[in-house]
């Protein structure tokens, strides 16, 4: 590939202005006189700020608070959620889909925001409309991902809802079919049911296939308890809609939808497709730098390119979680900055062994870090497994239905935790203790000396270690 003949316009160019791109640009230039351009075709702040993490959590929290109140004597009868108030609070957290605040932040830390759709056009060269940008040091791909719509007869013609419609909805459908069994499908089914929709969920397999089976079973039961008609291992065969209409994001897209599932017709007001996402590399110009796909090493450098191209977040293909993408972006930015200052990429610790953390904000919640028992065994690890009830004094005091499960996966040869899954109400806030233990490879004998305060939910960590010690004595 030929080097660009143009003079550099910026030290670093980041394609994609979501949280991943923001972090990559910030870390690449902070503490220096380097310059960065952040190119965004939609809203600076990206999917997370406007159509994913922030609005989805804003929709889920009121339902969680009501659930807590319903299981706390003395708080009285709980009224249905006020839909208008819930949506108004969601709007506040998305800044009304206005990115002025995000742009001001970027400009405040020295990042130039460039509006438009970017495309690679050769080595270190990016074209945005009629403007050509050239990077002195690096280009970072942070374009995220796009929904992957399954090839179901009639689905595209029915103009189904995608995840953006569900998080940015302006009206709650009376009834809705959710197609999918992953995190987005389960969370959307949770808030839609809480806001009064009659929800049917159809998953081709089971729910949350990458988590421990107990977690998936608890989420399934929680959805059923909330009135969701859960259909697993379902074959969605055909979709037909009366008068489909492009009414805009978050509005019902026409008349009634009839979906054939396992040979039986189900009619709903709307259909939501949440069957996964794929890296957003379409029309990105990869061919101009000799690539047909994006693959990265542990320091986010794109394979097949001579040291100037990086990728982070969903487009890098490793994880599809904002916090993990931001972690990759921070590493990419630090590597770029270190090299620009005359150092080496290996001066920065890569992500190769960093544990995955994730939370599913259903009712009950699921929080997990590291690997499952099945993944550990597939990796040849000699596993010790602890599974205990979540109910300790702290959780029991917090609410009357404090049931749940903690599953700990131990590498018996190294005597360290390699995976933890927590299932129960509010377990998301317990996850980071597990993350520290897994990431730092804290030896189990040392973990026993991490004394939890009483009476708090953190007492579960003492119970996990005690149970493991009992198992070992019994053996």
From TrEMBL:
Belongs to the class-I pyridine nucleotide-disulfide oxidoreductase family. Binds 1 FAD per subunit. One of its GO terms (biological process) is 2-oxoglutarate metabolic process. Residues 10-327 form the FAD/NAD(P)-binding domain. Keywords: FAD, Flavoprotein, NAD, Nucleotide-binding. It holds the Pfam family Pyr_redox_2. Residues 358-461 form the Pyridine nucleotide-disulphide oxidoreductase dimerisation domain. Its cofactor is FAD. It comes from the Bacteria. InterPro entries: Class-I_Pyr_Nuc-Dis_Oxidored, FAD/NAD-bd_sf, FAD/NAD-binding_dom, FAD/NAD-linked_Rdtase_dimer_sf, Pyr_nuc-diS_OxRdtase, Pyr_nucl-diS_OxRdtase_dimer. This is Dihydrolipoamide dehydrogenase. It comes from Agrococcus jejuensis. Disulfide bonds join 48-53. The keyword NAD applies. GO terms for molecular function: dihydrolipoyl dehydrogenase (NADH) activity; flavin adenine dinucleotide binding. FAD binds at residues 57, 143-145, 314. NAD(+) binds at residues 180-187, 276.
């Amino acid at each position: 590939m030929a080097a660009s003949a143009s003079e550099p316009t910026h030290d670093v160019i980041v394609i994609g202005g979501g949280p991943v791109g923001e972090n990559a640009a910030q870390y690449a230039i902070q503490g220096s006189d380097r310059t960065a351009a952040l190119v965004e075709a939609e809203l600076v702040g990206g999917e997370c700020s406007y159509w994913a993490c922030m609005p989805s959590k804003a929709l889920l929290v009121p339902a969680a608070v009501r659930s807590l109140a319903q299981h706390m004597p003395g708080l009285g009868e709980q009224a249905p959620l006020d839909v208008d108030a819930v949506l108004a609070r969601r709007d506040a957290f998305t800044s009304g889909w206005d990115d002025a605040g995000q742009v001001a932040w970027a400009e405040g830390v020295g990042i130039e925001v460039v509006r438009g759709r970017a495309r690679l056009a050769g080595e270190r060269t990016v074209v945005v409309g009629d403007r050509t940008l050239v990077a002195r040091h690096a280009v970072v791909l942070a374009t995220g991902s796009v929904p992957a719509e399954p090839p179901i007869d009639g689905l595209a013609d029915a103009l189904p809802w995608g995840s953006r419609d569900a998080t940015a909805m302006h009206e709650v459908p009376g009834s809705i079919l959710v197609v999918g069994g992953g995190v987005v499908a389960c969370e959307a089914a949770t808030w839609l049911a809480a806001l009064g929709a009659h929800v049917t969920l159809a998953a081709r397999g089971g729910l949350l296939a990458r988590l421990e089976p107990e977690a998936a079973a608890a989420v399934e039961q929680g959805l059923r308890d909330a009135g969701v008609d859960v259909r697993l291992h379902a074959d969605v065969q055909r979709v037909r809609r009366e008068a489909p209409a492009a009414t805009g994001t978050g509005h019902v897209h026409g008349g009634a939808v009839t979906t054939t599932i396992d040979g039986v017709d189900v009619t709903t007001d709307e259909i939501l497709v949440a069957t996964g996402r794929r890296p957003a590399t379409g029309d990105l110009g990869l061919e101009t730098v000799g690539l047909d796909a994006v693959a990265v090493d542990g320091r986010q450098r794109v394979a097949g390119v001579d040291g100037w191209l990086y990728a982070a977040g969903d487009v890098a293909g490793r994880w599809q979680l904002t916090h993990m993408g931001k972690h990759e972006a921070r590493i990419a930015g630090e590597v770029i900055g270190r090299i620009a200052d005359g150092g080496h990429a290996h001066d920065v610790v890569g992500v190769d062994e960093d544990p995955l953390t994730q939370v599913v904000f259903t009712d009950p919640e699921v929080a997990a870090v590291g690997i499952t028992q099945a993944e550990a065994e597939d990796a040849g690890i000699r596993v010790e497994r602890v599974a205990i009830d979540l109910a300790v004094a702290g959780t029991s005091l917090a609410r009357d239905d404090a049931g749940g499960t903690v599953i700990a996966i131990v590498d018996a040869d190294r005597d360290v935790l390699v995976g933890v899954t927590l299932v129960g109400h509010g377990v998301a806030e317990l996850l980071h203790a597990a993350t520290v233990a897994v990431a730092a490879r804290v030896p189990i004998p040392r973990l026993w000396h991490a004394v939890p305060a009483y009476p708090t939910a953190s007492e579960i960590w003492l119970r996990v270690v005690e149970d493991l010690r009992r198992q070992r004595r019994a053996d």
